[in-house]
Amino acid sequence: MTTTATDPIDLKIGYEFDALDTDGDGIAVWQDYQDIVDRHAAVFGLSPGDRRIRAVRATYGMLWQEFLRHTGVAADQGLTREQYIRACRAASLDTSRVKMTEGPPHAVFDALDADGDNKVSRSDFSRYLSEVRRIAMPGSMDAFAALDADGDGYITRNEFIRSVWEFLRSDDLERPGSLYFGQLQQS
Question: Quick check: is 181 in a domain?
Fold first, then answer.
């Protein structure tokens, strides 16, 4: 019997799907993203009409449309885990419409950086992972130390943007952007 190793990027995106699919029905729908937008607002004390929350909603909306475009699935059907992984990979490589590794991370960073000082504290990052994204994997906060490349106790915009690129594009599970779900192991 031959066992194939899970692709590292598929592994990470699969964990992303699992965190997104909070009702556990095996289908990602737009409402799952809307719930994340609503949690951003609630956790960081931003009104739904705040420009930062509107930006998060808009960029997630564009991503969702790109995921649907890349899979050909109708919006009312949602995406299975496998479709989501395929769509996320395709959208991260296709820069013809939405640069998945740039626009959405900037919008999310702005929502995390409520005081506008262009950095995110350990506390805010922890709240982002646990309360907004609902990631409670052992070791997920190890990502903070790895992302804080200069060791100043904060994640800068550039460090955050780079981490999203690494999450979506790097095969190296040791890279800081690969640690959002803790230290992952390939099967």
Answer: no
Q: Residue with structure tokens 């955050």?
A: 160
Here the tokens at position 77 are 């059907």
How many domains would you assign to the chain? 1
Give the separation between CA 143 and CA 74, rounded to whole angstroms.
35
Please report, in tens digits, the pLDDT of each residue of the chain (187 residues total).
444 458 999 999 999 999 999 889 999 999 999 999 999 999 999 999 999 999 999 999 999 999 999 999 998 899 999 999 999 999 988 877 777 778 899 999 999 997 889 999 999 999 998 899 888 777 777 888 999 989 999 999 999 999 999 998 999 999 988 888 777 877 6
CA 27 to CA 32: how far, in whole Å?
Answer: 9
Q: Which of 74, 69, 62 has the alpha carbon at shortest distance from 29?
A: 74
Q: Quick check: helix, strand or coil at residue 71?
A: helix
Rounded to an integer, what distance in angstroms lies between the CA atom of residue 138 and that of residue 62?
31
Q: pTM (2 decimals)?
A: 0.89
| Structure tokens belonging to residue 71 | 């899979």
Establish if 162 belongs to a structural domain: yes
